[in-house]
């Protein structure tokens, strides 16, 4: 099974990319492709820019990478209670190519932040809009206080409940794709 892991932040040290990659790695026998959205920076989307530029190659490549995956693991970063500008822009361009951006794939939705809220606001928005964009959310997990719960030296979560939630999400993704866990 091929899993595309995406953290929706263009920060070079994205904790959401770390969370997405970590969770995807919990799926047994999965080939994990970690996408860095910093590689997909484009002009801010507008109808006028689309008429002028067409569909940028980066947006077409992003849609293709989703197409090639069997499942997705997305971890949403939160800026001021909403999606990051980098993610929203990439998503807007991609949705002009494929309205169902996630192409009816099974998906784990995650979110995390340095604080105790765990990016729960953006997670709520993402889960509510998922059906409109072809995401079959099999699990959603919000991780609070990332730096207090993740050990970068060991590359694992130290909070047993968070770890159990992430393992359960990985198992649900395996079940949703029919892969052996």
Structure notes:
Helix 3 packs across helix 4. This protein has 181 residues and is α/β, with parallel strands linked by helices. The termini are close together. The relative contact order is 0.18. The protein is built from 7 helices and 7 strands; from the N terminus they run βαβααβαβαβαββα. It has a 5-stranded parallel beta sheet with strand order 2-1-3-4-5, sandwiched between helices. Strands 6-7 form a two-stranded antiparallel ribbon. Helix content is 41%, strand content 22%.
Beta-strand percentage range: 15-25%
Which residues sit in consecutive blocks of at least 5 with pLDDT less than 50? Answer: none
Q: Supply the number of helical segments.
A: 7
Task: Provide mean pLDDT, rounded.
Answer: 96
State Rg.
Answer: 16 Å
First CA to last CA: what distance? 11 Å
Number of strands: 7
- Overall helicity: 40-55%
Helix/strand structural class:
alpha/beta
Strand order of the largest sheet: 2-1-3-4-5
Largest β-sheet summary: 5 strands, parallel
Order of helices and strands: EHEHHEHEHEHEEH
Large-scale geometry: globular
């Amino acid at each position: 099974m091929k899993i595309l892991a995406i953290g929706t932040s263009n920060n070079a040290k994205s904790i959401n990319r770390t969370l997405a990659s970590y969770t995807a790695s919990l799926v047994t026998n999965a080939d994990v492709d970690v996408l860095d959205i910093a590689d997909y920076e484009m002009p801010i989307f507008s109808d006028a820019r689309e008429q002028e530029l067409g569909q940028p190659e980066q947006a077409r490549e992003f849609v293709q990478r989703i197409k090639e995956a069997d499942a997705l693991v997305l971890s949403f970063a939160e800026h001021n209670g909403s999606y990051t500008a980098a993610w929203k822009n990439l998503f807007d361009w991609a949705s002009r190519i494929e309205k169902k951006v996630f192409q009816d794939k099974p998906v784990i939705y995650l979110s995390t932040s340095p604080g105790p809220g765990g990016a729960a606001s953006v997670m709520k928005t993402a889960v509510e809009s998922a059906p409109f964009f072809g995401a079959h959310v099999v699990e959603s997990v919000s991780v609070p206080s990332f730096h207090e719960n993740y050990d970068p030296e060991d590359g694992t979560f130290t909070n047993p409940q968070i770890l159990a939630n992430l393992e359960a999400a990985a198992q649900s993704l395996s079940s949703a794709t029919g892969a052996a866990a």
